[in-house]
Every structure is written in structure tokens, then in C-alpha cells.
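Two proteins follow. First one:
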Amino acid sequence: MGSVENRLVRLQDLQHFLAEGSLDESLQNQAALTAELLGAGSCSIMLLNSGAPGQLRMTVLARFGKLPDAALAASVGQGEGICGRVLASGEALLIEDIAQSELAALAQGRDGIGGSLMSAPLRVDGKIVGVMNVAGAKGSPPFTQADRKSTRL
């Protein structure tokens, strides 16, 4: 099995964390393992947890690495910011260099991390329940399409 396929299998195995232990502990483990497997500087997991149907909002419930205080406290709805766009579209997003992206103004607190960013919807039984955000480590190469594909959970 090639390295890309192996990483994909390992990332998909992360879903099993949700079936074991507390949800908080499982999500923290998933964020840390995802960051490790992708060589990321940070990883956050946001889950839908408030709002009326059609106006659901999500907040960060787990993280690995540094995140700005504003991101930790944010409540994000569909179409709001980068992760809100992913929530609305249902499609994973890869940004090789956020500083050169049309979405640069939406990125928060990029000090100490690299310029590459991925954001992917999290699904349970085919329904989107949140978004996972992964930021590259400072000085590391940008994420690739293979990395983006490996975030499909």
C-alpha cells in the first residue's frame, strides 16, 4: 500500500475515536493525530452545536497546536469565513498559500504557522456535522491534493 493510501486509511480510522471514550477526548485525539499525519502546525475540529434548523452554527470543540483566541471563541454559520464556506458547500478546500489567496482577509491569527491551509467537512451517516481545519507548519511545504483527499472523513 502506498504512502498516500496508508495515510488515507489511518485518517479514516480516526472515525473510530468517536466510538470510544468521551467525545472531548476522542476529538482531541483526532485533532492531534491528524496534525501529526499531515505534518501540520495546527488542527481544529468544529462541530455544529447551536442555532435553529437552517441557521446552525459551529464552534471549536477540539484543537491541536496554536489557534487565535478569536477562533476559539467564534460561533460560525454557513458562508461565514473559510470554514463557514466549507460548511455551506460541503466540499473540502485546499489553499496552498493563504497570503496569495482571495480568502486571505478571512484567515485569522496566522503567526507561527505556515501559509498552507485545508478545511474539510466532517460527516456522520452522510450528513455534515462540522468542519476540520488544518494549517501547515511554519517552513513546511504546502499541502497537496493528496493531502486534501486524505481529509475526507
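Second one, unrelated to the first:
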Amino acid sequence: MITINSDGTVTGGTIKSPGNIIQVVNTAELNMMQTSSTSYVDFTDATLNITPSSSSNKILVMFTCYWVNTIVSSTNVNCSFKNLRDSTNIYESFHSAESGSGGLQAKGTCNHIFVDSPSTASAVTYKVQLKVSNSSSTVYAYDGRLQAFEIAV
């Protein structure tokens, strides 16, 4: 039983009013990851599990990292990041680098911030994958973090 005392304090439970953050799950800071794969590969350690307390609640997912992409001479290249819930692609971004002399680099940040509706009270897994558009290029991703916040509805 939840009791609201005369001094305004709450005892005996937790009020989960709409918009409140119920739980937070996050990864440790992600180590540097590099790939020259033109197919998506898992970003090492960028995986987390969260179990919503209600199937109607939302999950605010945040992923951020820095990236460096090597440029291939006379070729436009890009690196791509995507977020998955279990095996479903729910967010994807592309970061391009124009053609130039080989050895140059494009640098930037990847920031994914979105609200997901998993519609379950069972555990869900969120993870990040990355790839490059040309196997002669390499993307280096570092100083990243993946976080999930359950939001009461």
C-alpha cells in the first residue's frame, strides 16, 4: 500500500506516474572498435538487456560514440550504424566522406536518441552494429555508450 504522508513524503511503495523514469540500464564505456566489413557487425560490448515492468511502457534508447572513417582515393565512402531491438532494425544512420586522397580521414560523432515501444514485459535486447561502404576503408568507433531508460506510460 502506498501512503502519502501529511508532510508530502511517500511511504510503502513507488509512484510510477506517466513520464517517470522507472529504470536505467547502460553499458560501460565502449572500447575502440574497428571494421572494414561491408556487412553489419556487432559493435563490441554495445549490447544491453532491459525488462520493462509493463508492456505499455516506452524505452528511451541513447547511443553515442566518436568515429573516424578512412577515405579511399577517388571513392565516396560512408560508415553506418544501426540499433536493433532483438533482431529488429529500429534506427539507422549514415555518415559520409567525400572522395579524396587515400589516407585522409573523416571524423564525427554518432548520436542515436529515440523512443521505442517494445510492447512487452519480457526482456528485450538492444545492440549496435556498424559497417563501411567500401572494404578498402576502415571505420574506427570509440568512447561510446549505449543506454536504455524505461519510461512509465
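SUMMARY FIELD: Residues 7 and 15 are 16 Å apart (CA to CA). The radius of gyration is 20 Å.
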